[in-house]
Design brief:
By secondary structure, the protein is mostly helical. Among the domains are: about 1-35; about 60-155, no CATH class; about 335-385; about 405-460, Membrane-bound Lytic Murein Transglycosylase D, Chain A, CATH 3.10.350. It contains 19 helices and 3 strands. The protein has helices at about 1-40, 65-75, 80-105, 120-145, 145-155, 165-170, 175-200, 210-220, 230-240, 240-250, 260-280, 285-305, 310-315, 320-330, 340-355, 365-385, 395, 415-420, 425-430; strands at about 405-410, 445-450, 460. The chain has a 3-stranded mixed β-sheet, with no helix packed on it.
């Protein structure tokens, strides 16, 4: 068979190689013997002063705390200048990156705020500029004014920006741990984006439960490289549930949760919010009941995390009307009057609703009553805010009953003619004169015009 032929050929080749090696070995042995014999005839023996130089060195042999000494040490071992530049630039950049991560407080580090602190942003920008200028000055003193050219040409630039890992918890992470966290975060983003894109191409909507599973996978990976406090700090800044909580508190506008309150709220609601997200928009009876139960659990968790007083404030600020009242009270320097202003506004709105539901009032009468309610509301607001009321005139204290304009007819007018003449609607004329039959107008008959349509004149006679 074919494999047997191959086997015999292989054995023959090996045998030829073995014979060749044996012949060469005998020839080399003869040459070595001849050299030894010749050397024995040389006299005297000459000894040379040979110095053995180490061929290997450890990195600590050239490292130094002073950059200038460090550079000199690298030059002594004939390290290329461009390599020296790259090493120094990378080391200095890393040094100042650590300083920026630990010394600068950015608005993003205040994860409990829904709106950035503008004052903090200004101070952080100034500190960043100061550190960057210090970094540039140091590199220029070490490498010369053209150091940035080497930096731009030699150092690699990331093709994709990562997430900021700064602040008192994440900023002090070792470089290798930061790298692992960045890789995990980017993988997590890719998983979600790839899933969303696949669903879009398939013409399907994203399954909330699958999104929760993908995000939980990222959390599980982080648990292998971060401690529980570090994971919590990461989630407080970058998780979807924390972002939703910030949005929720931001809509309350005046609640102004502290860092500790936000942390407690996140701890109380994170797991519940994940379960609510997993339900998505399911409307079957079982899902609706689960959603209702989870919402009740969330409300109880909020109450427990905030305490009764802060929870009462939180619950009040959910009402847009109370937020408006609080804004008015705060603008007046009396935030404690927000509750009273809210009650005044609520009572006025209820009274206006009853007034509009009344059917036996003319539009003019409704306007008068609405103005009265508005004036009473303004007076009550001023009293609640401790503001002085303007002196009322005698006429204002005892307003005269407004006179209704009237006209005397000659018997030839029609309802349409009177409406056009005085710029009112026929129905308004009828409402102002419920006892007049406009189909049978008599000479000398007096009709009342809707109040406010004309100044109150003495009775006049109108001729067509």
């Amino acid at each position: 068979m074919r494999w047997r032929v191959i086997l015999w050929v292989s054995l023959a080749a090996n045998l030829v190689l073995a014979i060749g090696w044996s012949v060469n070995a005998h020839r080399n042995a003869a040459r070595i013997a001849a050299v030894i014999e010749a050397s024995n005839t040389v006299s005297p023996v000459i000894k040379t002063n040979v110095q053995i130089r180490r061929q290997f060195f450890a990195w600590h042999d050239i490292e130094a705390s002073d950059y200038r000494i460090f550079i000199q040490n690298m030059r002594e071992i004939q390290c290329p200048e461009q390599t020296i530049r790259d090493i120094i630039i990378a080391d200095v950049n890393a040094l100042y990156a650590r300083r920026k991560a630990t010394e600068v407080v950015l608005p993003e580090q205040q994860w409990w705020r829904s709106d950035p602190d503008t004052n903090l942003a200004v101070s952080a920008s100034a500190k960043l500029n100061e550190l960057d200028q210090e970094r540039r000055t140091l590199l220029a003193s070490l490498l010369g004014p053209g150091w940035e050219t080497g930096d731009m040409l030699s150092l690699p630039r990331p093709s994709r920006a990562g997430i900021p890992l700064d602040g008192p918890v994440l900023g002090i992470l070792p470089a290798d741990v930061k790298l692992s966290v960045q890789e995990i975060a980017l993988r997590g983003q890719d998983r979600v984006q790839n899933y969303l894109e696949a669903q879009r191409l398939a013409g399907k909507t994203a399954d909330p439960a699958e999104l929760v599973r993908l995000r939980q996978e990222t959390r599980n990976e982080l648990a292998h490289v971060l401690t529980p406090p570090q994971i919590e700090e990461f989630l407080l800044r970058y998780s979807q549930t924390a972002n939703a909580l910030r949005t929720e508190l931001g809509q309350l506008k005046y609640f102004d949760a502290s860092a500790e309150e936000f942390r407690e709220l996140f701890r109380a609601t994170d797991a519940i919010d994940l379960r609510l997200q997993a339900l998505g928009n399911a409307n079957d009876p079982q899902s609706q009941q689960q959603r209702q139960d989870l919402m009740q659990q969330r409300e109880n968790a909020l109450r427990q995390a905030l305490g009764e007083d802060r929870y009462a404030e939180y619950e009040s600020l959910r009402d847009p009307g109370y937020r408006d009242a609080y804004a008015m009270a705060q603008q007046a320097g009396r935030p404690d009057a927000a509750g009273a202003l809210y009650e005044i506004k609520t009572e006025s709105d209820q009274e206006l609703a009853k007034l509009r539901a009344t059917t036996n009032l003319t539009p003019a009468q409704l306007a008068v009553e609405a103005k009265r309610i508005e004036l009473e509301q303004l007076k009550a607001v001023a009293q609640a805010l401790g503001q002085a009321l303007p002196e009322e005139s005698a006429a204002a204290k005892k307003p005269e009953q407004p006179r209704t304009p009237s006209v005397v007819l000659n018997g030839n007018e029609s309802l349409g003619f009177l409406a056009r003449l005085y710029g009112v609607g026929p129905e308004e004329l009828k409402a102002a004169n419920p006892n007049v039959n406009f189909d049978k107008i008599r000479p000398g008959q007096v009709i009342q015009l809707p109040y406010g349509m004309l100044p109150p004149p003495p009775p006049i006679t109108v001729r067509p």
